[in-house]
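Exercise 7. Given the encoded structure of a 295-residue chain, write a plausible sequence.
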């Protein structure tokens, strides 16, 4: 009797150990200061990352603007991806160095919308995010990066960094369909109403532009095809960056959700194994909003 119980237990343990259950990836969203509604956008991103079943999400909220930042020390090294939803006061030297060390050492970084406005005078930050806007950025920050005549070009002409026209739905056009983040997306899809950032500039080292959007002068844009989904390699780390995501409402766009989830998975692991683009992904001529929001 004892022997047979042992045999059953033994067989069971072999069976259980042979099932490979992927550990969820750990994401840390950093917020607390932003000229945008971070109290509204962080929960939306957290919800969609968790719903993907691939991530657990913690949030590190900084002190408010003008408060003492010396005690703000998120433990970046505990995470697979640090998602920046922060545009505010400079962090302590120690915290800045911790982020640099984390990404240099192979950590994943995700940069969303106005996070690329932050820290204009922090050179390593600008190398990590590739391109940024406002915050004193200009030709000294690096080139504009545009898609012209079938290829990505660096435009060194003088001018400010960061601009947008009025909000509207706009087409996101895939320029690299072989990348795990964009694989299987329609060649062009209609993103829900958002701010279309143009004239971003920065060091743009080791940058891979996966998708662009045309900033139409008719809506106040630059008249250029501007980077809308891109990656940066920084040390051993992978950076996923999208200037989309102005408001909580626009984050219910299935195109944004898919880009966010895939971008974070890629930043963490270097690949995307979460499958096909969802059935409700936007079409070339139709936005797709999950949950009937933003009506
Ligand atoms: Zn905005």
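Solution.
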């Amino acid at each position: 009797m004892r022997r047979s119980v042992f045999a059953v237990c033994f067989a069971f343990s072999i069976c259980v150990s042979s099932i490979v259950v992927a550990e969820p990836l750990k994401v840390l969203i950093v917020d607390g200061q932003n000229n945008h509604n971070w109290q509204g956008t962080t929960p939306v991103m957290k919800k969609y990352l968790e719903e993907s079943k691939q991530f657990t999400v913690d949030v590190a909220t900084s002190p408010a603007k003008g408060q003492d930042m010396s005690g703000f020390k998120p433990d970046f090294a505990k995470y697979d991806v640090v998602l920046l939803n922060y545009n505010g006061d400079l962090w302590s030297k120690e915290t800045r160095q911790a982020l640099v060390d984390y990404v240099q050492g192979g950590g994943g970084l995700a940069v969303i919308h106005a996070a690329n406005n932050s820290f204009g005078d922090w050179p390593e930050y600008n190398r990590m995010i590739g391109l940024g806007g406002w915050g004193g950025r200009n030709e000294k920050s690096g080139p504009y990066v545009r898609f012209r005549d079938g290829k990505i070009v660096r435009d060194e002409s003088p001018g400010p960094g960061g601009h947008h026209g009025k909000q509207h739905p706009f087409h996101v056009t895939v320029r690299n369909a072989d990348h795990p983040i964009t694989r299987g997306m329609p060649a062009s899809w209609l993103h829900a109403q958002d701010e279309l950032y143009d004239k971003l500039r920065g060091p743009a080292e080791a940058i891979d532009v996966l998708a662009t959007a045309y900033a139409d002068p008719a809506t106040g844009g630059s008249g250029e095809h501007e980077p809308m989904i891109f990656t940066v390699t920084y040390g051993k780390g992978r950076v996923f960056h999208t200037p989309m995501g102005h408001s909580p409402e626009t984050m219910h766009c299935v195109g944004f959700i898919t880009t966010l989830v895939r971008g974070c998975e890629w930043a963490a692991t270097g690949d995307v194994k979460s499958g096909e683009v969802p059935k409700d992904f936007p079409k070339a001529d139709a936005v797709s909003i999950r949950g009937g929001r933003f009506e």
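Remark. Confidence is low (pLDDT under 50) at residues 5-18. Students should compare their own answers with the one above.
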